[in-house]
Design goal:
- This protein is α/β, with parallel strands linked by helices.
- Helix 5 runs antiparallel to helix 9 and helix 7 crosses helix 9.
- The C terminus is likely disordered.
Amino acid sequence: MTGQKVRWGILATGGMAATFTADLVDLPDAEVVAVASRTEASAKGFAERFGIPRAYGDWEALARDEDVDVVYVATPHSAHRAAAGLCLEAGRNVLCEKPFTLNAREAAELVALARANDRFLMEAMWMYCNPLVRRLKALVDDGAIGEVRSVQADFGLAGPFPPTHRLRDPAQGGGALLDLGVYPVSFAQLLLGEPSDIVARAVLSEEGVDLQTGALLTYDSGALASVHCSITGGTPNSASVTGSRGRVDVPYGFFFPDHFVLHRDGKEPEEFRADPADGPRASLAHEAREVMRALRAGETESPLVPLDGTLAVMRTLDAIRDRVGVRYPGEESGPGEESGPGEESGEPAAARGVTPV
């Protein structure tokens, strides 16, 4: 694939698909050649909007299109397993939106499919591809603030969201945790890895999804991570990393920061700023470039967003949901097949931190 354009297919026609496609068509080494939706009318409308030559009224036609090098899956996350799985089985490479799936069991199935078919697969965790986030991680890994003692991150939207909204719909994997909380959890695990123990509390809606959730993640190193998400109030959407010899503060929009401040003991604060060419959503273009780099290099996963890391995040999300009692249709035995870190099975809902409203 070296030296030629990477041909993209878009699976779904919602807002996230439109945003990503708008960035794709501006990249000189990318070409969007096909789009699919559950209805032909929706696919054709999307194709006309972005000048895409082929529009399909079903997912399978896109999955079997031999002219497509990689499919971007942007369905609601309750359909990620089915959509991405269909593409992988047909021999397509896949970039799948976050959260990767509803639970760790589904995530493991997709990873196994990709590896069995020798196909590229990556979660669309665009934060990990952001150059400034990568710079922050490099500084922390190099010991700029000593040993990491704590991480804090939050993501909240004010709403209100009606019960019919996808964020409140259990059938679509609704709730704050999977849609927003995946960012704070992924930020914490980028720096600390998978936790050894988890405590969580949540406020649940009448539909049974979490309106806001807070979790404390404990690590064998002695570090702690405090993560919070909400669809009932706009939070600072900030993050901080505290070490034994300093601290990094990331202001509003930690998942696409325009700057962060490094505080080192005994030194003046240092500000690190994003490239002026990187707008608020430039991480989507960086994400697309990383996918295309990996495909040209013949890689089946990205070192920036490794599949084992995605699986670890899904296990943490499963464990948090288990603590607060959020289950989705079809999850009769709980979010995943196995217990998460520190899980005590058989607890009543109140003991798991459930606060119904």
